[in-house]
Design goal:
This protein is α/β, with parallel strands linked by helices. Helix content is 43%, strand content 19%. The protein has a 5-stranded parallel beta sheet, with helices on both faces. A 4-stranded mixed beta sheet has the order 4-3-6-5. Bound molecules: guanosine-5'-monophosphate (5GP).
């Protein structure tokens, strides 16, 4: 049994990837992220550090590492972030160490970050990054979704709509663009992207040994 599994393509060692999902707030990326994390055992969320206050229902270490500004500044100074940015007056950053180690082991990471963070990550590590942008079917629908959430004031929603327009203007900095008018369909498309990207030759680090074995006779 062990002998057969050693020669199965699915068992080949591969390098992990960094799947970036970006979208304007309210376009569904949080839902799609949750579906991926629930249904795919090989991908884990990259948990960012932030200085913004915790929202109701958020858990420290799960949704974000909630830190004081002084601690965030120390991490920047110590070069502990892949990238960081200031959004709505708060700081957000992607801690490096865990991700680098995980990628080597074949662990995939999911990133819920904006276009600036995406650019920075891509500049640092093009080979591991897969960039997916999720678009809402319309801006009216986006506004409905943001209002329906009931967590933010009218001013905050107006600011988010402005930011949504700005975010959408960066759609062409992504490898894939998916319109979310049906959440299940959108999820299936994102999952298809993930599956195909895992199969890329450059990521399948076990291939050399496998083919060498295959050719030996
Ligand atoms: P929220 O406060 O609604 O959770 O997130 C606000 C914005 O910050 C979102 O657009 C989100 O994508 C972005 N964000 C969250 N974590 C990071 C991060 O680590 N880096 C960057 N650049 N943006 C982030």
């Amino acid at each position: 049994m062990a002998e057969t599994s050693k020669h199965t393509g699915d068992q080949l060692h591969r390098r992990g990837l960094m799947l970036i999902l970006s979208s304007p707030s309210g376009a569904g990326k949080t839902t799609i992220s949750r579906m991926l994390l629930d249904r795919d055992a090989e991908i884990a969320l990259s948990v960012s550090a932030t200085t913004r206050p915790k929202r109701a229902g958020e858990v420290d270490g799960v949704h974000y590492h909630f830190v004081e500004q002084a601690e965030f500044d120390r991490m920047v100074e110590a070069d502990e972030f892949y990238e960081w940015a200031r959004v709505f007056g708060h700081c957000y950053g992607t801690p490096k160490a865990q991700i680098r180690a995980g990628l080597k082991e074949g662990q995939d990471f999911l990133f819920d970050i904006d276009w600036q963070g995406t650019q920075q990550l891509y500049q640092k590590d093009q080979q591991d990054v897969v960039r997916v942008f999720i678009l809402p079917p319309s801006l009216d629908e986006l506004q409905r979704r943001l209002t329906g959430r009931g967590t933010d004031s009218a001013e905050v929603i107006a600011a988010r709509m402005d930011r949504a327009r700005a975010e959408i203007s960066h759609w062409d900095g992504y490898d894939y663009v998916v319109v979310n008018d049906d959440v299940e369909l959108c999820f299936e498309k994102v999952r298809a992207i993930l599956h195909a990207e895992r199969m890329k030759r450059a990521r399948q680090t076990g291939l050399i040994g496998f083919v060498r074995e295959l050719m030996r006779d």
